[in-house]
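Worked example 2:
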Amino acid sequence: MFVNKTDMSEDPDYVSHGHHDHGASWQNLRTATTAISIIISFLALLFDIILIFVTKRYKALKIRNNQYLFHYACCNILFLCSNSIVHLVMDVFFEGFLPKEWYCSLVQLENYFLNLCIVFIGMYAIDEYIRVTCEKNFRSYNSGFRYFIFSVYALHIILMMIVSSVCFSHMETVRFDISFIIVTITYVVFLVFVLKIKYTVARRLYDTQTQLLSTVLEITLIVYLFYLPVVVYYNLLNIFDVTDMEGTEIWADFAFIPEYIAYCATFILVYKLYKLNKFFKLAFCKVMCQSRKDMDYSRLDTTPEELCNK
């Protein structure tokens, strides 16, 4: 996300791991935080895999709304792994160094996948709002939402190509933080939109449908809350870096704190789905082999529409 621009290699046209690790100071702290990061990332990956499995395995969860959770989990896996993969490739194939242009392009993959996570968890709430309030006026959306998902990926590929072209252009200073500007704009737009929906719902009389929408909004907003520290912190770091503020490296050394909070977004998502959605609760209990006599697991093989018709 944040990349230190200080020259750390003998050749100014190449970039080493130190640029992403915010300098050579506090190596012991960095080693410890890396170990903790591996543990958190591994657990988050496990939660994402479980979420992917249940949304594809059980009929009751194969609804349009949950497709956004599926894509969120897939992108979150890539978000968690992308940075490690880039640096692993640097070590294995390029002896720890990459040309600055290539490094600029590849290191921003983390931001693209974070941006996709923000989009898909936001669409999880927006989709439910469409279903509850204006489904009849959006029948084409019901049959074509997969094209929308495809267009989201296509747009990010285009953005990646644009940013990469900037990285490979003849600029005196390579802008490593271009893609995070896009992340910030996306986060603000979707957060405002979801808050506007929540305000609209709060003014309406409660019924079963609006209660379901309120649940989805609660889940989305708490995930956004876990992304807020990393969005704010890295924007501040980029501002400090551009203005050559003293002590930027010290602030960068503590960037692991908002990163850990962002990595934990999957934990709170799965927990909230377990607590607030009866079908996800059934699915998670079944996956974890927590058999309970008070639970009817056969409902997982029935769509919500079929349950309503019984």
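The beta strands are 14-16, 97-99. The two ends are 51 Å apart (CA to CA).
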